[in-house]
Amino acid sequence: MNTRSQDIDWFIENEDFIGRGNNLSVLLREGVKKITAVYKNRQYSVDIEVFNDIPAPLEERRYNIAPPELNLEISPGNYYPSVVSFDGTAALLSVLVDDTSLSPRLPEDSPSSAGGPGLTRDFRMEIPDSVLQELKNGSLFRTRSPSFRLAEDYEVGNIRQIKVLDTTNQYNEPHIVDVKLYHIGEKYTLWLRNGVSYNSSAFSQIKTKLDSVIMPRLNALWGDFADIDGDGKIAIVFSDTINSENVALGYFNPLDMLLSGEASDNSFINKMDVVYIAFPSNDPLSSFNVNAILATIAHEITHAITYSQKTYNKILQGVEVNREELFLDEGLSHLSETLCGFGVSGGNILFLNRYFENPQDYSFCTPNRAGQNDSTGMRGAMSLLLSWIFWNKGGMSVDRGDPGLLSDNGGITFLKNLLQNNLTGWNGLSDVLDETIEYVFGGFAYALNRHRALGDTYAYVVDPHTGEPLEFSNNMGIISYHGTPYNISMKTPVSAGETITTLPWSFFLLPPVQFSSESVIKVKTGFTLGKSIFSFIKYP
Asked: Is this model's pTM higher than 0.70 or not?
């Protein structure tokens, strides 16, 4: 193609979009690749063979951390060290090179620190054990309520009462609000709190994205919600109480899916398929901007579908299962935001950046260093791990003509297998992947350190319709969110002479070091519980 036009779209393999313009630089994996250029309805393709031009193979070595000290004799070269903690901790850990400490500092944890979202996406509404047991015992049945339950009964302008949680304290009495039916979609209804002024342009965007992207992609990725009220639709309720309480952008309450029995008389329950969302703001810099609201809708409906598929439907069929564990449940919903095309515009990239700022402070599944069971950093960490697994299993392709049409290349099969598996947490992941979780987690940690050692910008998969990342990784480079640039890469904050106690299921990098002669690395620790690994990549 001989043209200077910038309107050239480039694609690779299964129609994955890789860039635009007449000058393209992109990192490709080894092998024969089909490259396609599209310009003014004309298409040109060529097969190229990609070779690995690394001057020497990467060499990783792993060592179990055991007290009191591990002495490693190191040959000359460039080293990229890291620490991986599995099921336990390593207390008072320090890594010394020629009496120079490489130990990470202990930074302060603050929700408003640089790179963090202003509001968390949502919060976890727990199901009391007694209610879950009652459901398992068969005393709560999916009976149909005759009122307001059939699609043909709905008319735009209908008003009904809805119970909306007090998001500052889920156990306070809920708000009883009147909501008016604003719009009826094929698979959803939009309800707005009556009497609240709204931005018609914002809701026009929301309807368009729900119809063209969010609902079809969610259905392709995860399947369908339970439809407990038999209307074939999920209600999306917008309440300004969520805005004024300024705690979250929305939530899903699994108790709404209880229709009969003593527990369903609880005053918090609406007996319908429903998610609750804040009103969108006209201000693009607000935490409630339209794209953040769209990402939240995708996030909460994912919760409704995954709870339906993983837990609710199986219990009704008599299968003994539990609800998905918090860390994996939230990680899947954040992954879903990115796969729906809101990885940057919806603010999900900020959760990843929060983790990258201080990775040593976050466990992937247990409380962070500040003792929080759920945190933006943990959510960013899990969305990163799940993205790595999803794309390593083959990922997906987005149709160039239809933004809602997805083709499964292996990643979607992985997600659906995870929902059909009766195990939860790490056990479910391990069972679906047919690998020990230590093997998976260790391979993931190596992959991130490898990106650092190679020093290149990671060529992530992008959405052909928006140009946003569909994949999260290390070394993504500079990405802007509403005009603010973020360097999306795992940081290595250190301070000489300090020590750290690692968190279970955590991973962090240490600064690279270069040796011109034979040297010794000393890994010291007070004691260990469980398994922790010190590793390094030598390059070249």
From this structure: yes
